[in-house]
Amino acid sequence: MEKLADEIIKGRRLKKEDDLTVFLHADLHELCQGADRIRKALCGERADLCSIVNGRSGRCSENCRFCAQSAHYAAQCEVHGFLELRELMDGCGNMHRQGVDRYSIVTSGRAMEGEDLEKSIAAYKAMHAQYPDMILCASHGLMTVENLARLKEAGVTMYHTNLETSSNYFPQICTTHTYADKLMQIGRVREAGLQVCSGGILGMGETWEDRLAMAAMLAELEVESIPLNFLIPIPGTPLENEPRLTEEEMMRTTAIFRYLNPQAYIRTAAGRTYFADGGTVLFRSGANGALTGDMLTTTGNCTAQDRTMLLEMGFTVKEEQI
User: Fold this and answer.
1) Long-range pairs for 156-159 at CB < 8 Å and ≥24 separation?
2) Which residues contact 164 (CB under 8 A, 6 or more apart)?
3) Which residues pair with 136 in a beta bridge?
4) C-alpha separations of 139 from 6, 23, 180, 226, 283 in Å
5) Residue 101: which of 223, 284, 282, 265 has the closest Cα?
6) Sign of CA dihedral 259, 263, 264, 270
7) Closest residue by Cα to residue 113 from 78, 151, 163
8) Is-contact 143 111, C-beta < 8 A?
């Protein structure tokens, strides 16, 4: 793996046509060590912290089998309409003071439109005006180019839309929208002049070949930020009894995504709480970003603890604004 890591550092880029199964049999220590070298050489020692707020929760029309917010299942989750501006401003200000790089409003539902769209645009404008050094991201489902352009005008720079898994396995996870819908949305995001944040959830019953295919597709799409979520099974969802991945599987997955996406932010997200120390081994396996604070429907890592962990590992992070 050392030779392959060197080749990638020198400019080689792996594609879906390459024999990617080499990653499945490589020694885990050597694989992760190579991924860490790629990260250091091509991305440096900067760690990128992102926080999200559940801007509109529950009653979602989509049937994603992992999600507590789907109206198709009996999972328990908080249900509320679009948050008031003051709540969003307070949340953004809190993350700004803690030295978080990015702040994103995430909403349930197939798309964002109408009154809620207008509220979101007003919120992004207000946050951008008061906290101009906070990078604003958005995650509002399937949107038109015109509405995405309005988000950009309001201060948003990156839009999130997960592929979730491979094209082959996607129909086993969701049937109310398609993998093609996801790809078209990414195209619209690009057309609107926004950066793309897209990753998925690992541990939903997919094969290693599915994971390789997703990593290769994200590389083909040249996605700038790749959140890796490790499934936290939620009671009441169809995946509630899915066995969790082992730490070794999480490390191998993280390393693979770094080899195939050497210059992207590989962002650890849900599932880091499986690690007692917050997942230091993932940041030694190629990760250089994290979703910090609580997730949408599960508990996440404390931002102060994340900052301490990353600083002790030798990463640099944005300074606190206290």
Assistant:
1) 156/124, 156/194, 157/194, 157/195, 158/102, 158/194, 158/195, 158/196, 158/197, 158/224, 158/225, 159/189, 159/192, 159/194, 159/195, 159/196, 159/197
2) 64, 170, 173, 174, 182, 200, 201, 204
3) 103, 156
4) 36, 31, 18, 14, 25
5) 265
6) positive
7) 151
8) yes
Q: Which structure tokens are listed for 156?
A: 């948003």
Question: Whole-angstrom Cα distance, residue 239 to residue 68?
Answer: 10
Residue 50's identity, in one-letter code, is C
DSSP secondary structure letter of residue 19: -
Residues 6+ apart with CB under 8 A from 278: 272, 301, 305, 306, 309
Q: pLDDT value at position 300?
A: 53
> pLDDT digits over 269-287, tens only?
999 989 988 899 999 999 9
Question: What are the residues whose beta carbons fall under 8 Å from the beta carbon of 106, sequence distance 6 or more?
Answer: 52, 53, 54, 55, 139, 140, 160, 296
Environment class of 38 (CB within 10 Å of its CB; exposed 0-12, middle 13-18, buried 19+): buried
> What is the reported pTM?
0.94
Start-end of H helices in the chain: 2-9, 22-25, 28-43, 85-97, 114-130, 145-153, 179-191, 208-220, 247-260, 280-283, 303-312
299 has a pLDDT exceeding 50: no
DSSP per-residue codes, 159-219 = EE---BS-TTTGGGT-SSS-HHHHHHHHHHHHHTT-EEE--EEE-SS--HHHHHHHHHHHH
Determine the Cα–Cα distance for residues 36 and 32; give it in Å rounded to an integer. Answer: 6
